[in-house]
Each structure stands twice: as structure tokens, then as C-alpha cells.
């Protein structure tokens, strides 16, 4: 996700709360937001869930609507990549 540089503090605060709440969800293995080094306003969020049901639970959670929608309102662009783990 890319944001305006001036939004960095607000983005960090939103991600702090979104990450904490998301990690408490059933089926969430990991949820970690990162600012990309050297890129003031670029964020990478690494999320892991046990299955698609857990992903849908996450997307329907009240905290997701509150915090993710706040991010969507101020982000400039977003790329989503879904990954298959190598076991």
C-alpha cells in the first residue's frame, strides 16, 4: 500500500490497532504490518490464516471495517499478492 508521506504517523497508528485486533481473531496465524525501509510511505502487510473461512471472518470483523476502511480512504495505491506456502 502506498500513502502520502504526511500520512505516515496516522497510517502507523491505524495499523497498530488493526494488527492487534486481527491477531486475536480465530484462525489468524500472523498479521504483521511493515513500513518498507527507504520508502517513507509504503506499507507491506503480511497476513496468514488457517483457511479461507478465517480470511472471510477477518474481512467481516468490525475492527476490519473500522481500521481497513480508514486506510483505504487515504491510500494512494494497493497491490495484493496471495501466496502459497512452501512446506
Explain what you see.
- It is globular, with a radius of gyration of 13 Å.
- It is built from three helices and two strands, in the order αββαα.
- The protein has helices spanning 8-23, 52-60, 62-74; strands spanning 28-35, 43-49.
- It has a single domain (5-74), classed as 2-Layer Sandwich (Alpha-Beta Plaits).
- It is an alpha+beta fold.
- The mean pLDDT is 96.
- A two-stranded antiparallel ribbon has the order 1-2.
- α1 packs antiparallel against α3 (62-74).
Question: If classified by CATH, what would the architecture be?
Answer: 2-Layer Sandwich
Gyration radius from CA atoms, angstroms: 13 Å
Low-confidence stretches: none
- In terms of quaternary structure, what is this? single chain
Structural category is: alpha+beta
Strand percent estimate: 15-25%
Number of strands: 2
Strand order of the largest sheet: 1-2
The level of helicity is 40-55%
Tell me the overall shape.
globular
Number of domain modules? 1
Keyphrases for this structure?
87 residues; alpha+beta; Alpha-Beta Plaits; two-stranded antiparallel sheet; 2 strands; globular
Topology:
Layout: H1 8-23, E1 28-35, E2 43-49, H2 52-60, H3 62-74
Please give a quick description of this structure:
With 87 residues, the chain is α+β, with helices and mostly antiparallel strands. It has helices spanning 8-23, 52-60, 62-74; strands spanning 28-35, 43-49.
Amino acid at each position: 500500500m502506498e500513502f502520502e508521506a504526511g500520512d505516515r504517523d496516522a497510517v502507523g497508528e491505524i495499523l497498530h490497532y488493526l494488527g492487534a485486533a486481527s491477531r486475536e481473531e480465530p484462525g489468524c496465524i500472523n498479521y504483521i504490518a511493515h513500513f518498507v525501509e527507504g520508502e517513507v510511505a509504503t506499507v507491506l502487510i503480511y497476513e496468514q490464516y488457517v483457511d479461507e473461512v478465517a480470511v472471510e471472518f477477518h474481512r467481516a470483523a468490525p475492527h476490519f471495517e473500522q481500521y481497513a476502511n480508514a486506510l483505504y480512504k487515504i491510500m494512494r495505491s494497493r497491490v495484493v499478492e496471495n501466496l502459497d506456502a512452501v512446506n
